[in-house]
Amino acid sequence: xxxxxxxxxxxxxxxxxxxxxxxxxxxxxxxxxxxxxxxxxxxxxxxxxxxxxxxxxxxxxxxxxxxxxxxxxxxxxxxxxxxxxxxxxxxxxxxxxxxxxxxxxxxxxxxxxxxxxxxxxxxxxxxxxxxxxxxxxxxxxxxxxxxxxxxxxxxxxxxxxxxxxxxxxxxxxxxxxxxxxxxxxxxxxxxxxxxxxxxxxxxxxxxxxxxxxxxxxxxxxxxxxxxxxxxxxxxxxxxxxxxxxxxxxxxxxxxxxxxxxxxxxxxxxxxxxxxxxxxxxx
Length: 282
Known about the structure:
Layout: E1 6-11, H1 36-43, E2 48-54, H2 63-73, E3 80-85, H3 96-102, E4 108-112, H4 126-133, E5 141-144, H5 151-160, E6 166-168, H6 184-192, E7 197-201, H7 215-229, E8 234-236, H8 249-259, H9 265-279
Parallel strand pairs: 1-2, 2-3, 3-4, 4-5, 5-6, 6-7, 7-8
């Protein structure tokens, strides 16, 4: 195991009694409160000393309320060092009013507009591209959360926005369950050619066979991500509590430790800590 505290770049908190999350209705194990107390318990012996909250797809119109709520929670737990908030990027330059309000919250470091449920060409709409291009003016990054068939157009989006700092969530969600590598493998390499994008090694256990995965199922994907992006552009993410469908928190951390056990401590620190601090300006 690691002998230093980690930074988790992908944590969700929600309370269905406070904000509405329609998508939770279909997933009973997740459709309940997951907050600070539950996270502390879930971490067990894993020492997390900083974390980044990522928007949880609360219902439309509540994104600013969500960001302010997490900012309030950070006063109770100083480990919350960053917020990736939600904005309807497809509204183009009209999102500047939203961004003006969000940047009044010092912890807001980035934006995520969930793409995984959209059509493959959704991210190339002219208004969407304009909205993404507005982010550097606010010193905000953009989290890309997609399924692997959307990679081709994601590559084009990144190409069109060279001034934007991107991070790919959950390694682009390849079909690990069915051991599918192509075309994800080649497309990930193409995406990694752009210097303005990082990759979160996160969310993998829920793309595998959730009830029967082992390290050997994940390691080829982990190796390819690190070989493609290099050790300076990858970051650990816990994807808690979504990942509880397939793994407890310590097991995922231990799995990634084992997958990178041949790394020097310096390189493991980059993966589990240093790169996150740099990218999200924690």
